[in-house]
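Run log // design_07
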């Protein structure tokens, strides 16, 4: 899959946020299994984002649409990617499950 056709997953976060760190680690693990581009955005570098989200982070956007806040539901994340990229949800979930428990 080309870089341009991969979903863009953006993690809105800031330093010293334990939920942000957890989300980043989970997304990096998932990126090793599924094809998507991951971009981390420090909201402290953007006044508008900082005002909008403040302490209400992390936030995960998929192709610019808000998908998760605070915690990532792995099954829902995989389903969203599946809808964007095609394939069956069972096949995607089985790949993740096998990777984690293999």
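design_07 sequence
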């Amino acid at each position: 899959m080309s870089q341009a056709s991969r979903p863009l997953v953006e993690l809105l976060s800031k330093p010293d946020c334990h939920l942000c760190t957890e989300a980043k680690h989970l997304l990096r693990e998932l990126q090793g299994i599924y094809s998507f581009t991951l971009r981390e955005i420090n909201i402290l570098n953007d006044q508008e984002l900082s005002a909008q989200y403040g302490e209400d982070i992390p936030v995960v956007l998929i192709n610019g649409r808000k998908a998760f806040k605070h915690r990532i539901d792995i099954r829902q994340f995989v389903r969203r990617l599946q809808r964007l990229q095609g394939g069956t949800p069972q096949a995607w979930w089985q790949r993740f499950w096998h990777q984690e428990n293999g």
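The chain has a mean pLDDT of 87.
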